[in-house]
Amino acid sequence: MNLHNEKAYPKLCMQLLSTLEKSLPNHLTYHTLEHTIDVANVCNAYIEHYNIEENDAKLMRIAAIGHDFGYIISPIEHEERSIKSLSHILPSILTSEEIALVNGMIRATKVPQHPTNFMEEIIADADLDYLGRTDYDLLSGGLYKEFQYYDIVNNQEEWLDLQIKFLENHKFHTSFACEFRKPLKQQKIKELKEKRNALECQ
């Protein structure tokens, strides 16, 4: 990491967060600054749990903060838009090899996820950590509103069908997520199916 001084890394992180706060569209109700901070916090938990080396940890945090940067422009291919936007910023403090690692982690968040190394597995799991948490309903509610805005779903039935399909096709990658997130995710699938069946019976 080409850190000319110790302030370069935290300054970059603050710059990225500040840009997201100012520039993310107001109609986003899931891919918000709060989501980015949540993913970064989850990454920090992984970094501590797996005792990740400090330089790799910094790259992971940069990827976590920058992974949805493309939503400033559009949700379409937002991962590649994120990488393109960061390409104007990262060379000031990262080597080309480090930028490639960050780009790989950002691409690993693209659904369906296909991480190719451990750092990418962590970012992928951190991005969808909420799937196995008790705040699933709250956060998925924000995603529902966002999907309605983009005309991805039009009603509760379509939303439940989409959630069930997504959760059934999704898989966690790290041993931590498989142990501590998968059980609640499986329970949520059962609950969503019960809700869907109840709607059919009305």
Describe the structure.
The protein has 202 residues and is mostly helical. It has 2 domains: 1-127, Hypothetical protein af1432 (Orthogonal Bundle), CATH 1.10.3210.10; 137-202, no CATH class. It is 65% helix and 0% strand. The chain has helices at residues 8-23, 33-49, 54-66, 78-86, 96-107, 118-127, 136-149, 156-169, 175-180, 182-201. Helix 3 (54-66) crosses helix 5 (96-107). The longest helix is centred in the C-terminal third of the chain and has 20 residues, at 182-201. The model has no long low-confidence stretch (mean pLDDT 95).
Outline the low-pLDDT stretches: none
Give the CA-based shape: globular
Helix content: 55-70%
Compute the separation of the termini in Å. 59 Å
Work out the number of β strands: 0
Number of domains as seen in the coordinates: 2
CATH class of the largest domain: Mainly Alpha
Concise structural overview:
The protein is mainly alpha-helical. It has helices at residues 8-23, 33-49, 54-66, 78-86, 96-107, 118-127, 136-149, 156-169, 175-180, 182-201. The protein is globular and about 60 Å long.
